[in-house]
Design a protein that fits this description.
alpha+beta; Alpha-Beta Plaits; two-stranded antiparallel ribbon; 2 helices; globular
Length: 83
């Protein structure tokens, strides 16, 4: 099967929201709820504290990010607009 640019659609890059998920390390208590709600973007370190991607959150995952932010018991997550 060969690639024909006239008939083969190109893969689309994910739309970016222009916002980055950030963690306030002072406020975070390491509950880990954010990683359970948004595992596509948040991993936990060995002590249970979140490590988030520094990329912009894709628009398709914005709803997941909002859910993790609203569920954080210490309000340590937020979305920051890229300058």
């Amino acid at each position: 099967m060969s690639f024909d640019p006239r008939t083969t659609p190109l893969p689309r890059a994910p739309r970016r929201s222009g916002e980055q998920l950030v963690v306030d390390p002072v406020a975070c208590a390491g509950h880990g709820m954010c990683a359970e709600l948004f595992p596509e973007w948040i991993d936990l370190d060995d002590w249970g504290y979140p490590m988030v991607s520094s990329d912009d959150v894709p628009a398709e995952l914005r709803e997941h990010a909002d859910r993790a932010i609203k569920s954080c018991p210490t309000l340590a997550l937020r979305l920051r607009k890229r300058a």
